[in-house]
Design brief:
The complex is a heterodimer of chains A (190) and B (296).
Chain A lengths: L6 H13 L3 E6 L8 H5 L10 E3 L8 E5 L4 H13 L5 E5 L1 H5 L21 E3 L6 H17 L4 H7 L1 H12 L8 H7 L4
Parallel strand pairs in A: 1-2, 1-3, 3-4, 4-5
Chain B lengths: L1 H31 L9 H10 L9 H19 L15 H7 L2 H13 L2 H32 L4 H8 L8 H4 L1 H14 L11 H4 L10 H25 L6 H21 L5 H24 L1
Helix pairs in contact in B: 1-11, 1-12, 2-11, 3-5, 3-11, 5-6, 6-9, 6-13, 7-11, 9-11, 9-13, 11-12
The chains are: A alpha/beta (190), B mainly alpha (296).
Chain lengths: 190, 296
């Protein structure tokens, strides 16, 4: 479908050009993948070149980086964290464990596909991916934001029922204290 | 007429200078750590991104008002600081007024963070106020020394007196002890390492900013840009002879900021009690020696 060139879309394009240069990352490091992040941040690979900085609280973060496997217990924390982040926000699945369970495929305690529970923008394959792969994937994310294709976060507001169903299948009934449907209406997202 | 123009454009100029100073700070820190670092205009991207967030969660009325109080208090303080070409309010409010109203942003912040009910935020605020009790003693003492030396409490008069004989009449040359005390206090006031106790990202998750996201954090960053300009300009006016034109002011701002950043880039963080203990020992000792020199 051809995108109509309106004043709003032009403004959004300019914002995307600026937005892609400043991505603050919250890393959720329960898996072993966390070990690849210090080299990515420090002198050798320095991701601050692209404006990507680690942040420590979900309210300030734009990227949620899930490094490695998630057990049912940690999945709950990820969902709580994800819902506290301010849109636009992107989840990056890091390593094989988030894609298909990886080496924990047979485990009774871990979840296999991350994108059933929260909308994932991109996956980084590997066990574990090296800093080059991380930098490369962030560049892909930056490119997608620039083109206006990085809209996975809208999916959570639009198809909340689907995600909620999957979450409750694993975790049972639970309340995150964030009213997603209300927020979607209030901030005019859907 | 020109006064009204200054009131409108002075905060904007201060914001732009502060913006590039903070961008320079990130580049400088990166280079010290042997990284390439972000571009020097990185702060523009950050602020635009934060202000263009789609969702902005508020925790209540006090949370909203506090952010305005933070920015408003900073802008109010800024108007009392004399700069080249503008000293209208500086005639009516001297340094004592500035030392009172400079606390408004911190108090506003304390009220707003209380509303968010995040324990990290409350710890951050209590640490910030404790740090304030630390550096304010040294800063007040060094200011009192300068006031006694020059027989005036007006910042504009202090600036003029120091400009009489060039560098030899600068406060930091006339009485270096007071200058050093104020410089260490300034490090604490700006929240740079090793006095970073109330931000402490690895300990209390950026303290007061922990529940701030989107536009709230955007306004806080704007306030931070103005705050950096304001605090260093106070130091320049008191000890480095102010400035005769804006280029001189900008050069002095960057020089003082580089001194602070060099300490910031290589030091770790004090514990809260150690930071206050340090502040009450070393800078206060310097300030008292300076005061004794002034009196005797």
């Amino acid at each position: 479908m051809e995108e109509k060139l309106t004043q709003r879309s032009v403004w959004e394009k300019i914002l995307n050009k600026l937005r892609k240069r400043s991505l603050w990352m919250l890393h959720y490091c329960t898996g072993c993948g966390a070990i690849e992040l210090p080299p990515t941040m420090t002198a050798r690979f320095d991701m601050e070149r692209f404006g990507i900085t680690p942040m420590v609280t979900p309210r300030q973060a734009d990227i949620l980086l899930i490094t490695g496997y998630l057990s049912a217990k940690t999945l709950k924390r990820v969902i709580l964290t994800y819902e506290q982040m301010q849109a636009p926000k992107w989840v990056v699945g890091f390593g094989s464990c988030t894609i298909n369970g990886g080496m924990y495929w047979n485990s009774y305690a871990t979840i296999k596909k991350l994108d059933r529970y929260v909308p994932v923008e991109i996956y980084i394959a590997g066990c574990m991916p090296r800093p080059e792969a991380i930098i490369n994937s962030f560049n892909v994310l930056i490119q997608r934001i620039d083109e206006g294709k990085a809209n996975s976060w809208k999916d959570y507001y639009e198809n909340y029922d689907y995600y909620k169903k999957n979450q409750e299948a694993v975790l049972g009934k639970f309340d995150t204290l964030v009213d997603i449907k209300d927020d979607a209406k209030k901030f005019n997202i859907v | 007429m020109s006064t009204i123009l200054w009131i409108v454009f002075y905060p904007i100029i201060a914001f732009i200078i502060g913006l590039f100073m903070l961008g320079y700070a990130r580049k400088f820190t990166a280079r010290v750590q042997r990284r390439y670092g972000p571009p020097w205009h990185q702060l523009i991207f950050d602020i635009v991104k934060l202000m263009s967030k789609k969702t902005n969660i508020s925790h209540g009325y006090m949370h909203d008002i506090a952010i305005m109080m933070l920015l408003g208090g900073t802008l109010l303080t800024l108007l009392f600081i004399p700069v080249p070409g503008f000293h209208y309010f500086a005639q009516y409010g001297d340094m004592l007024v500035i030392m009172y109203i400079i606390l408004i942003p911190s108090l506003g912040m304390a009220l707003g963070v209380g509303e968010t009910a995040n324990p990290n935020g409350s710890i951050g605020i209590s640490r910030a106020l404790m740090m304030l009790a630390g550096y304010d003693v040294a800063f007040a003492l060094s200011f009192i020394g300068m006031a006694m030396l020059n027989h005036t409490t007006s910042m504009y008069q202090l600036m003029l007196i120091q400009q009489q004989h060039g560098i030899s009449s600068w406060g930091i040359v006339v009485n270096p002890f007071l200058g050093i005390a104020a410089l260490i206090a300034l490090q604490g006031m700006m929240g740079e390492k090793p006095f970073e106790v109330f931000i402490a990202p690895h300990e209390i998750a950026t303290g007061p900013m922990v529940e701030m996201g989107g536009k709230y954090l955007g306004i806080m960053m704007i306030q931070h840009c103005i705050g950096v300009f304001l605090e260093i300009t106070i130091f320049i006016n008191l000890f480095l002879g102010g400035a005769k034109n804006w280029i001189e002011l900008i050069v002095k701002l960057f020089v003082v900021f580089t001194v602070l950043l060099s300490v910031n880039a290589v030091f770790g963080r004090f514990r809260t009690d150690d930071a206050v203990r340090f502040m009450w020992k070393i800078p206060v000792a310097f300030a008292i020696i300076g005061l004794l020199i002034v009196i005797l």
